[in-house]
Amino acid sequence: MDEGIIFRMSAYSEQGGRKYMEDVVDIRIEYEPTQSPSPGEDYPKSQGHGGQGKVESEPTKQTENETRDHNVAAEAAPVSAMWVESLSNEDSGNNSAPASEGKVAGQAVDTRRSVAFFAVFDGHGGREAAHFARENLWELLKRQRGFWSKDHSEVCAALKKGFIACHHAMWKELPEWPKTITGLPSTSGTTASVIVIRGVHMYVAHVGDSAVVVGVQENDSDIRLQALEITQDHKPELPKEKQRIERLGGSVMKKSGVNRVVWKRPRLTHNGPVRRSTVIDQIPFLAVARSLGDLWSYDFYSGEFVVSPEPDTTVMTLDPSRHRYIILGSDGLWNMMPPSNVVNMCCSHDKMVGPKGMSCARRLGVTALLFWKERMLRADNTTVIVLALQVRGDPPIPMHQEEIVVDMSTGMDHVPFPGTTYNTCQVPQRIVAANASTFGLYEAAFCATAHLLPDEQCELPLMARPLPLMGGSRVSAMRRRTSLDDGSEENPAQGDTD
Fold it and tell me: What residue spans carry the region label Disordered (predicted)?
């Protein structure tokens, strides 16, 4: 069995000033099954998820989460909740040795091996698609044939099938999603950048313009880290994407200097069936060529979606001695900070800040927001997940209270560094209610229960003026966006712009 990695994790999300878009994250750490499901057999569903349920309202979800937190030790909870329980036992002084084997949803699990799932969803045209993906994508991925295979190509194929299954499941939910003000079906969609870590292997699946970047240090003497961009933005102007769109009968047009996928629809004043004589409006609508949702892009002639849900996939073998950081972020981060600046800020932050100040993810997110404000632009949604890889056997870096440490090789009941503070505290309801419109408190939840944001850290800290930006392809291009959003039209969920 491959020796798993150890990493520190932190997450941060701020919704900015974009009213009809919402960033959400999903973080799961679970046991791998002892053996893959047999051909034709689905992976067992975890409690509270299923790949076909409706997106729950926030008050209902919070109530269920609170109940699950208090009863996690008494029920056969998902494995991710079992890990939260082990952390609670550690805090209470219960040092009993963890069981070497357990049962989860009727399946034997190996407590010496874990799988980690991290995802950033940047929604547009409404919150429904992003929330649906957060609630269902992971379960759908696990149930695909080949997902638990040791063959990398089979795992990547399963990731693609899982994305498409999630997309088709959204189609079934579309009648339940809020319509636009003109009565048209919802235009909600979301980017999705996902990584799955098993052993020393990282699998990446990606649609849209959120990104995954790895900070690489080739030699110990290197002062600056190199930024390795694992994903490429799915922009409509890319030759491959434009050819695919046009092959399906779609088109790409510019609006205010930004290339967008065109939404072809009958004029709003049209009544009755669509005929050849029907006037069709062509609206430059979406600034990404691939996403989950955006069901308006279905082409009835080809039977395919012009905005494709099929992800790019890749696999990477992680070496903690070289690969120092893994950063997932929405374009609210990357539009303001080039990847090279991001990975080196993580490095300098760990060297100078230590356990004081703020977590690395919060540092990146707040800095990006300050850059938006400095340029007098309306801040985009900004979400960041940072994984700081640690070499096994090296002394641990002092940990901030917003961070947790995970050892993938020994399972979730193992504490990698005894005496280190672990934090899985809940965000109080009063804080959520008071800050819901201003601060997007992230939901980095293990089994959608444990939040990583302490009570005393619910406000944005004061920071000095940020350093000037260095040149970079992402920032220098800036996609010529000023007040433009990163997805659909300004008010797609509530109205239509001709």
Answer: 29-74, 86-105
